[in-house]
Design a protein that fits this description.
MGS-like_dom, six-stranded mixed sheet, binds the ligand NC(=O)c1ncn([C@@H]2O[C@H](COP(=O)(O)O)[C@@H](O)[C@H]2O)c1NC=O, Cytidine Deaminase, domain 2, Bifunctional purine biosynthesis protein PurH, phosphoribosylaminoimidazolecarboxamide formyltransferase activity, Rossmann fold, 3 domains, single chain, AICAR_Tfase_dup_dom_sf, alpha/beta
């Protein structure tokens, strides 16, 4: 007994009268009110085990799915709605005489609205220590099938996936005499397909992650977090999307205390600055401009680290993004307050520090609430025309043990400290990267030049100190010629760290030996293009 749309009450062209709804939800927020609203409109409610129980408990009249299908829910819920009686009721083309005849013959009852949200796969898979069996049990099968069926047949049925949509759906039903319009059903169908696509993406990604190779199909989904005021430039639009299924993103654990909305460029610089200070356990500060540090330093306190980072290149630090890995106290805030800062991020602020900092309207003050160092197993992705470049992250730490002193003179212990400090900073500088450091603070940075010797020249020119006597130099890749080290040595550099591996290594080492300079090969390169 196929129940075609009622001939009694007229419907607007393209509108569908909702007479029977199937409700089957994991997230039960708002479902009772939604079902009550439907029932008040005379809609018959069919529902699955847990959902039916919740509705019955609220005093609603519910028809159990096994009564509808004539087949019991079995196998711990693995099979509850997967039945041709339901799918014929969802998929019939109700303007097709043959479909209607077949429905009549099989005594199919039409379902006009499906309200489903799925087992919480993403949340379950993201839980620490969760068993594989539990993750797999959270792969919903019946739910997506119903959603896809109803969404495909949106010419005759409506599909609702988000509790946030319940009120609007009820309102339209009330206003339009129990019907939903075609535009509404179409937009609900689009939402349903996006929802199941996201769901399947999370599942595919979970399987792919178990295998360390790059998968043949690189599947990811990204969810909009916020529209940004503009992109890299004011004539470009911009938005920030977070990757579905990752434990954290650059903004997920960030609380904004003060200032304007964070911008596209701010997010890029913030990510870089935070990554740099997270290299260190001791108080550290990084000042980033245009995605390159213009100062980085360690210190006995946040204040000292900041002052020493700032001293590296005060001119470039103007309008910078500053990251600290220590709480900001009033004294540090007073020093910071002397400068124009675009963004400040730190793990916390004393109340009286915030009082000082918030006197300036424009500074964006962010609190980094991510306490653990996140281990990003995710590969790094960059977009190129029509595609993506995917690579392992340049993670891990190069330790002194794996390095080789290649000169006659070995670095002193102080030089070793500066060499390792400069080396770690150089990884955060765009290639060709040269970092000069003394006393665990950068004193000159040459970034993003197309020739390495130009980066050396720039770093030496940038140095604010009268001479670079005793400074250490880090180069993110080998020196192709001796000219770069020679330039630095003439300026006073006494220790150099670089990967080595050039065909002219011998010339480069000879230049260092001739000047009594210590040189270390790391055997690992850290280009950052
Ligand atoms: N197997 C099935 O036939 C099936 N039909 C619906 N579900 C899901 O079961 C959940 C609701 O279950 P309950 O009403 O029992 O709490 C929904 O998330 C729905 O997507 C199913 N579960 C898994 O596939």
């Amino acid at each position: 007994m196929a129940s075609e749309t009622s001939p009694a009450a007229p419907t607007a062209p393209g509108a569908v009268r909702i007479q029977r709804a199937l409700l089957s939800v994991s997230d039960k927020r708002g479902i009772v009110d939604f079902a009550r609203g439907l029932a008040e409109l005379g809609v018959e409610i069919v529902s699955t085990g847990g959902t039916a129980a919740a509705l019955q408990e609220a005093g609603l009249d519910v028809r159990a799915i096994d009564d509808f299908t004539g087949f019991p829910e079995i196998m711990d819920g693995r099979v509850k709605t997967l039945h041709p009686r339901l799918y014929a009721g969802l998929l019939a083309v109700r303007s097709n005489a043959e479909h209607l005849a077949q429905a009549d013959e099989q005594q199919i009852e039409f379902v006009d609205l499906v309200c489903v949200n799925l087992y919480p796969f993403e949340r379950t898979a993201a839980r620490r220590g969760v068993s594989e069996a539990e993750v797999i049990e959270n792969i919903d099968i019946g739910g997506p099938t119903m959603l896809r069926a109803a969404a495909k047949n949106h010419a005759f049925a409506a599909v609702v996936v988000k509790p946030e949509s319940y009120d609007a759906v009820l309102e339209e039903l009330r206003d339009a005499g129990g019907t939903l319009s075609m535009p509404t059903r179409e937009s609900l169908a689009a939402e349903a397909f996006a929802y199941t696509a996201r769901y399947d993406t999370a599942i595919a990604r979970w399987f792919a992650e178990k295998n360390e190779d790059f998968p043949p199909l690189f599947i990811r989904a990204f969810e909009k977090v916020v529209d940004l005021p503009y992109g890299e430039n004011p004539h470009q639009r911009g938005a920030f999307y977070a990757q579905v299924g990752t434990r954290m993103n650059v903004l997920s654990q960030v609380k904004q205390h003060h200032g304007k909305q964070i911008s596209y460029n701010n997010i890029l610089d913030l990510d870089s600055a935070r990554a740099l200070v997270r290299e260190y356990e001791v108080p550290a500060c990084a000042i980033v401009k245009h995605n390159n540090p213009c100062g980085a330093a360690l210190g006995a306190s946040a204040q000292e680290a900041y002052e020493r980072a700032f001293a590296c290149d005060p001119m470039s630090a103007y309008g910078g993004v500053i990251a600290l890995n220590r709480r900001v106290d009033r004294a540090t805030a007073q020093r910071l307050h002397e400068q124009f800062i675009e963004v400040l991020i730190a793990p916390g602020y004393d109340d009286d520090a915030l009082e000082v900092l918030t006197q300036k309207q424009n500074i964006r003050i962010l609190e980094d609430q991510e306490r653990r160092l996140p281990v990003l197993g995710e590969p790094e992705i960059r977009q190129v025309t029509g595609g993506l470049l995917v690579q392992d992250r340049d993670s891990g730490r190069d330790e002194r043990d794996g390095m080789e002193v290649v000169t006659a003179r070995r670095p002193s212990e102080d030089e070793w400290s500066d060499l390792l400090f400069a080396w770690r900073v150089s990884r955060h500088v765009k290639s060709n990267a040269i970092v000069l450091a003394r006393g665990l603070a950068t004193v000159g940075i040459g970034a993003g030049q197309m020739s390495r010797v130009d980066s050396v020249r720039l770093s030496v020119e940038k140095a604010q100190v009268p001479d670079l006597k005793g400074a250490a130099l880090a180069s993110d890749a080998f020196f192709p010629f001796a000219d770069g080290p020679e330039l630095a040595i003439r300026a006073g550099v006494t220790a150099v760290i670089q990967p080595g591996g050039s065909v002219r290594d011998a010339e480069v080492v000879a230049a260092a030996d001739e000047a009594g300079v210590a040189m270390v090969f790391t055997k690992r390169r850290h280009f950052r293009h």
